[in-house]
From TrEMBL:
The keyword Transport does not apply. Pfam families: Inositol_P. Pathway: Amino-acid biosynthesis; L-histidine biosynthesis; L-histidine from 5-phospho-alpha-D-ribose 1-diphosphate: step 8/9. It catalyses: L-histidinol phosphate + H2O = L-histidinol + phosphate. This is Histidinol-phosphatase.
């Protein structure tokens, strides 16, 4: 790996992207906003667009040969060796309703596999970073997933019942009712909680690559397992159904129940 592609340099740029997004998002948080309905009916605000524009400007200046897959401004160069996957404000509904549980998600793919992930929570002042081979950290302090190995002992989260179609909801309901605790809400923060060992399972459906690839880099670096519902690694072409678990044993049990 050349010096320009070193782990330290890539991490520096990832932090710069998160910093730039936070400047724009925090400036507009809990202020009157123009909310626009996108084609998929999800709300988008001026903050989302300004934050992603700032992130893309950094990449254009410092990593012009890399690809970008962003929520607000689309995909370019995704055949490149390095692809940055950007979600400037994950949890836009939380953002526009004044909840602090929204974040900036950054994933870096190399050869199609995620090797760096950030879940940045600007209002909470927490930055969760995972990098392949270097572990996971919250504000510079190491974090690791729990040792939970059974569904019956697991604490499971999902964002909302509304993200599931009827068949997927039936599967989630079947799994979650066997868990020790199930909770709704949290958006991307649930993945950070899993990386930090305070919850054990996150199961979701209907996601896009910018929703799950940043969290995937964090969770894998924290020792967890994250795949689609068939157990396949996540990538740009995944179907949007995600299972994240603290341990391989818990992950396998969750898959078996979801697909029963």
């Amino acid at each position: 790996m050349s010096s320009i592609d070193s782990s330290q340099e890539l991490l520096r740029i990832a932090h710069a992207l998160a910093d730039a997004a936070a400047v724009h998002s925090l400036r507009l948080f809990r202020t009157p906003l123009e909310v626009i309905a996108k084609a998929d009916e999800s709300p988008v605000t001026l903050a989302d667009r300004a934050a992603e524009t700032a992130m893309r400007e950094i990449l254009a200046a410092q990593r012009p040969g890399d690809g970008i897959y962003g929520e607000e401004h689309g995909a370019v160069g995704v055949e490149a060796a390095f692809v940055w996957v950007l979600d400037p404000i994950d949890g836009t509904r939380s953002f526009i309703t004044g909840s602090p549980l929204w974040g900036t998600l950054i994933g870096l793919l190399r050869g199609g596999r995620v090797e760096l992930g950030i879940v940045d929570m600007p209002v909470l002042g927490e930055r969760w970073v995972g990098q392949a081979g270097l572990g996971a950290h919250r504000n510079g302090r190491p974090v690791r997933v729990s040792a939970c190995a059974s569904v019956e002992a697991a604490r499971i989260f999902t964002t909302s019942p509304d993200i599931f179609g009827p068949a997927d909801w039936e599967a989630f309901d079947r799994l979650s009712r066997r868990c020790a605790m199930r909770r709704f809400g949290g958006d991307c923060y649930s993945y950070a909680q899993l990386a930090g060992g305070t919850i054990d399972l996150v199961v979701e459906s209907g996601l896009q690559p910018y929703d799950y690839l940043g969290p995937a880099g964090l969770i894998e670096a924290a020792g967890g397992v994250i795949t689609d519902w068939a157990g396949r690694p996540l990538g740009l072409d995944s179907d949007g159904r995600v299972v994240a678990a603290a341990t391989p044993a818990l992950h396998q049990q969750a898959l078996e129940i979801l697909n029963a």
